[in-house]
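INFO  loader      accepted 1 record
INFO  loader      residues=311
INFO  predictor   begin
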Amino acid sequence: MLPPAQSAPVWLRLLMLIAGRLPTASVSEGFAPRGVVAAPTTRHLPVALAASAAVPPSREWASPIEPDVTVATVLSKRFADVPVGQGAGTRLNLGGTQLDPSRIALPPAAVLPDEWDVERAARALPPDAVELLKREFAVPRGARPLVGEWLYQQMCLEPVVILTQRPGRATDEAGELAAQLDWWNWSQHVAMHDLVEGVDWWFRRPIVVLSPQTASALPWADQVPVRLVVAVGFSTWMSPARHRWKSAPQVLMLNQRSTDVSDFREWFDNTSFGEVSIPGVRNTRKGGLTLTAFGEPASAFTDVEDDEWDL
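INFO  predictor   done
INFO  writer      dumping tokens
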């Protein structure tokens, strides 16, 4: 992960700590890493954590594009979901575009699951975010430049998921946070740029913002990779939504001015949890935040019907 900007406040540095270390935490077999952030308010914190956890692009990638799959990728500087067919010789037919992988690099892509049920049109990439990536990945004169759109697509292939009862608020807060220019490194700026609510943006934004109800209904959720799941509020934590990604690292955001903390403690005290080794995150109180971590057993996830939950 990239370091924070030098002027980032203490609370942001703590969120970056858990965002960077939780996905690589040492957890006992059968347990998945979980973090808890308790604060006087959850305003701005979920987006800041999600932006901190977004995966920066790299100069190298392995494209999964091959015949007889449908992929989410970038064609002609636009997001598109396209079937892949076998063309003449070694060429591939990528949604009507002929590409020869023996001669040119294939764009980054994600193979869509068989149960993918989202019908969506091609969309333009956010131009400001793409331009920022091009500047960060500048190459010496005469060298082959990297495709900025491909760099952005890389960041979208393993999104961070924010589950919240108020997804519109999260997207508004992204704009407010992005205005604090001296807080963020370039990767975080890109992740927060033009944050949009809804499943239509899966593989099209580094951060995906969903309501628990929407996430619970996705038939393909457990077939797509996620970097981190951020659950806002204890009611969201107790919904079936986060169970779709039970093996992924998850962070619970608790509002200290509500019953969140007491409700979480009651739930935690009645369940057996494993030890998780995250240097600096096991139990930290600083900058108005309390950070803790634990390992959640896979057995804690059970199949439930959506109508059993009052969201």
